[in-house]
Amino acid sequence: MCGIVAYVGYREAYPVILKGLKRLEYRGYDSAGVSLLDHNGLQVYKKKGKVAQLEETLVGQALPATIGIGHTRWATHGEPSDRNAHPHRSASGRLAMIHNGIIENYAQLKKELQNKGYIFHSDTDTEVLLNFIEDIREKNECGLEEAVRIALKRVTGAYVIVLLDQENPGTLIAARKGSPLVIGIGKNEHFLASDASPIIEYTKEVVYVNDYELAILKEDELILKNLGNEKLTPYIQKLDLELAAIEKGGYDHFMLKEIFEQPHTIYDCLRGRLDAKSGQIVMRGVDNHIEALSKAERILMVACGTSWHAGLVAEYIFEELCRIPVEVEYASEFRYRNPVIHPGDIIMAISQSGETADTLVAIEKAKEQDAMIFGILNVVGSSIARASHAGAYTHAGPEIGVASTKAFTAQLTVLTMVALRIAYAKGTISQERYLHLLNELEQVPAKVETALKTEEQIREIAARYADARNMLYLGRGYNFPVALEGALKLKEISYIHAEGYPAAEMKHGPIALVDETLPVVFVATRDSYHEKIVSNIQEIKARKGKVVAIVTEGDELIRSLADETIELPACDELIAPIVNVIPLQLLAYHIGVQKGLDVDKPRNLAKSVTVE
What we know:
The protein folds into 3 domains: 3-245, Aminohydrolase, N-terminal nucleophile (Ntn) domain (Glutamine Phosphoribosylpyrophosphate, subunit 1, domain 1); 249-442, Rossmann fold, CATH 3.40.50.10490; 453-604, Rossmann fold.
């Protein structure tokens, strides 16, 4: 959600922070701000809107500070405004702080401080926490580091905080619980950020801060402690990330770039893992735990949003291939239930960022009941990765567009390989079927490349339907979750109301919406449901609905019925969702572009949802 950047070193801090904020703008973007500490004291500059609007207000100003903090905000407490933007300044004016997360007991803390005479200038929980820290420091006559430690023991909720102290001008203090924070280690300089994208230009050496840890950063020193004031040894990792991966590379939008990266990202998922010629899948995270995975009596998949749709597809795959019952849960609901979890149950946590707050809490709850946690994640070193017993990375690379595209197809690819590996170990799949599916998977990058060639046709279809008020997406079997994902993409990118349904359920309510103004998108590639979905298309046409059909090459029957047909290469129905989602991503993208919307940063959305 919110983006955090901080710097201490020998460079001018403002350009480093500003560039970093632009790279984090996808996380949240209703306001932005920086605080700099130089010989003139502590300065705070903040502005409602995007980072560019903050930049405009500071053009021509001399900003020589070599230490500073910066923030892009995704509102939780208080409407987007200059006064609610971060950083916030303490009542004395000596401290400035940025914050990602939610302080759940802020109202109680605020009342205590108001009773002591504190006056608040924003509606945020952040200003409350900052003044609470300052009050502790003054009352206990202690240093800022100790005041932070005491305050955080009283705090309920999630946070990453970074503080700048006018009385200690060469030091940043940061702490984390439940939200991501990474430290970049340079030569006589340190960087702090919500993810690695603002850091990779300067250093590849990073430390991922864990929950309940406190970092004290100076130009030439990094001290890591727990809240009990015990020193910790920082674990330094090398970033496997290139600057080009977070730049647009000539595309108009990150979303379009990421859609077109999918042949490459899917190949990266498969590379070194799948060898169709030898009939092998090698995945260390699976191989090392194959006994537990193959003997599991139940798999629970927990996820949110697009990752939840990946889980729904995987439910079909695992149950067919592995003969293991699968339940797919919204992490946000799972965490508040009292779920029945038995020894030997496998919890698969699916998350692009690896920081999704609800998913993280859900797996911690499952761990308390002795479940095995298996993560399907994109971000190395993320919180869910560290909390899992085992897992598999998708290797999709940074996904900057808020609406997930390449992460979804990478998740499906990895989940399919995991299911095939377990099925082979259990003996629930024939050798012939196993080898066939390995060959099918190996061909997916090329088939996705072919699917991307439909872009010009989809651009024309998008122009015809950009003014629609509502759309219906229908599919059956493996394609039902693909229909859900297509509808979600359209909602996210174009703000058109769209719903996904199993095609047979259309008659149980949604068919009442059908008239000559309603576009209905059918995911109707050739599979075991084909005759049934042809009947569903005929039902829509009989009621004058407009049909856009995703079909297998050469399907003349559906072509004769539909208003628009988009042809895709033939795939085994188990593999087809990875290919079939491509035109739905392109349709959402081009409708959003036709409407003149910011497709990379849809309103009200954030990339990594680090609060519930």
